[in-house]
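Listing S7. Sequence submitted for prediction.
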Amino acid sequence: MTGRLFGLGLGPGDPELLTLKALRFLRAADVVAYPAPQAGESFARSIVARWLDRGQSEIAIRFPMRPGPVPAAAYDAGAAALAAELGRGRDVALLCQGDPLVYGSFIELFARLAGRWEVEVVPGVSSICAAAAAARLPLASREASLLVLPATLAEADLARRLMTADTAVIVKLGQHLGKLRRVLEGLRLLDRAIYVERASLPEERILPLAAVEGEAAPYFSLAILRPHSTESTHS
């Protein structure tokens, strides 16, 4: 008998946004695994810490928290640790900030494990939706389209794609905040962009992107651009 892997979407940070289904699988799992920095606590674990009361085994999958792609070796090591538990017949709950299949580290682990083990994915509230709710900005209605872009793209690519967007959400700001500002200034759209930082958390910040200082943003931040809206973009 082999174990099952549950990829649990936890939402953007507010524990009250955890779904009942994710909570049920979390409580039933033999092992709880989560991404963590190479030194320090796991943000994903902190979201559900109040429910970790069953004495389950825990696995911290350590990733380097620095700009650029995560080395494949880190995913390989994490997948091997999970596979060892699954091979013992133990069910593993893998905690995923936001939604597991939206720019999550779960995707790489899923690719390494899905062919050998039974995997169930529980969707979660993505940062994209949480930020829109916090800023009270509709993302799409009627025939409008929604474009999601990583700020890691080259300036020319960002500009080309943003020019035709009805609404765009730009994620992975981090070290690319200054680049995005330059692109939007060039398109004369900077005043149409709203910046959202740490959506759903007590330290949440929402302000016009033009008012954000510096060339870099925290990891948990994104921008929402509504180029053609005639409504106020923030109140």
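Caption to Listing S7: primary sequence and predicted structure tokens for the chain studied. Strands lie at 4-9, 31-37, 57-63, 92-96, 118-122, 146-150, 167-171, 193-197, 205-208, 221-225. The helical segments are 20-28, 43-48, 72-87, 106-113, 127-135, 155-162, 177-187.
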